Amino acid sequence: MPEAQSSWFDKIVDFFRRLFGGGDGKPPEPPTPTPTPPEETGRFIAVDAGHGGTDTGAINSTVGINEKTVTLAISQKLKTVLENRGHRVRLTRSDDTFVELTRRAEIANNAGVEIFVSIHCNSAETSTAVGIETYHHTNSANGRVLATKIHEAMIAAFPTHTNRGVKSANFVVLRETQMPACLVETEFISNNQQARFLQDPANQQKIANAIADGMAVYFR
Ligand SMILES: [Zn+2]
């Protein structure tokens, strides 16, 4: 960026001018707002709603929801957010159907998407387990960057939730995809409070927005 270099001195002069005034007794002008960098557009992104059809994923019968319903709702909201931001989206499933794990990777590979994000809800034997964690494949450096950016955006959006960190795993969808990939464990559906959190469409929307924000940082 050659222009950044040439304006460096001007920026310093401008900074002191604003701090101390123009030297002619005028009060300092209010600082001009820093322009936000242009939003990345025109990316091609795979969104993978975990589970589906006969594979319900984890179930919370007390709250009355299952994982496959939550992951689809978040994925559809994420698709809309990304399309509104000028991206193209390939869903590995767009309704309540069963799709093999290897097929999900194949769909993304054949479509030629740039990144792959899988949406899941966590679950544990103990109902007290809570928090957000994001996975990348052990051997993918770019996957780790993608996972980190999305995880940071999730934690920024949900600061009161437990941060379980970015982790690596040998999940099929992460291993078999040929592009940077990550898997977001949005919260624990096995915890009743977090299951109700995941069930709320407003929270699903907030999760979708946060994941899209993380992608934007990754592409920047
Ligand atoms: Zn899952």
Characterize this entry briefly:
This protein is α/β, with parallel strands linked by helices and 220 residues long. The chain has eight helices and eight strands, in the order H-H-E-E-E-H-E-H-E-E-H-E-H-E-H-H.
The fourth-level CATH homologous superfamily of the largest domain is Zn-dependent exopeptidases
In terms of DSSP E residues, the strand content is 15-25%
Cross-sheet strand order for the largest sheet: 4-1-5-8-6-7
Class from helix and strand fractions: alpha/beta
- The CATH architecture designation of the largest domain is 3-Layer(aba) Sandwich
Structure characterization notes:
With 220 residues, the chain is of the alpha/beta class. It has two domains: 1-35, no CATH class; 44-219, Aminopeptidase (3-Layer(aba) Sandwich). It contains eight helices and eight strands. It has helices at 2-6, 8-20, 67-84, 101-111, 141-157, 172-176, 192-199, 201-219, and strands at 44-49, 59-60, 65-66, 88-91, 115-122, 132-137, 163-169, 181-188. A six-stranded mixed beta sheet has the order 4-1-5-8-6-7, sandwiched between helices. Helix 5 crosses helix 8 (201-219). It is globular and about 60 Å long. The chain starts with a helix and ends with a helix. Residues 50-51, 57, 67, 120 line the site of zinc ion.
